[in-house]
UniProtKB/TrEMBL annotation:
SUPFAM superfamilies the UniProt entry points to: YbaK/ProRS associated domain
Pfam families: tRNA_edit
Annotated GO MF terms: aminoacyl-tRNA deacylase activity
Originating species: Actinopolymorpha pittospori
InterPro entries tied to this protein: YbaK/aa-tRNA-synt-asso_dom_sf, YbaK/aa-tRNA-synth-assoc-dom
Residues in YbaK/aminoacyl-tRNA synthetase-associated domain copies: 27-145
Taxonomic lineage of the native organism: Bacteria, Bacillati, Actinomycetota, Actinomycetes, Propionibacteriales
Name assigned to this protein: Prolyl-tRNA editing enzyme YbaK/EbsC (Cys-tRNA(Pro) deacylase)
Amino acid sequence: MSAQSDQVEAVLRRLGAAGTVRTFDQEVPTAAAAAERLGCDVGAIANSLVFVAGDEPLLVLTSGAHRVDTGHLARLLGVAKIRRASPERVLEATGQQVGGVAPVGHPAPLRTVVDVWLEKYDVVWAGAGDHLSMFPTSFAELVRLTGGQPAHVSP
């Protein structure tokens, strides 16, 4: 495990998460790669995507089967515009590289939205801070762990 996934594992334990971090021997930097490796539906992969809403980072945990509609999400959150964060801004906000961002373990709390589509799955897999690690969770647990706002991320 990496320093990032060790940190995520520690946060998960402190928050009473049910699942444990699983480390793979090959990178799983995309939802499709992760789903193939885990033998699950791509929709059960919780992508951790970082956007910028105004000047603040926004973490969106979305089903691997969805694309985030930033216009819809901006209206829902009452902000003028939401744009994708640069890889540098993602690292600054999360301490983790694009493709391995976890829902927890960031330097400071992030405003978070959790895609309600994830509620369809009993087990949801989320990144654990690097390209080699993920952990099993549920929609309800993701909301609890992150303090996230459940929402439709696309109309």
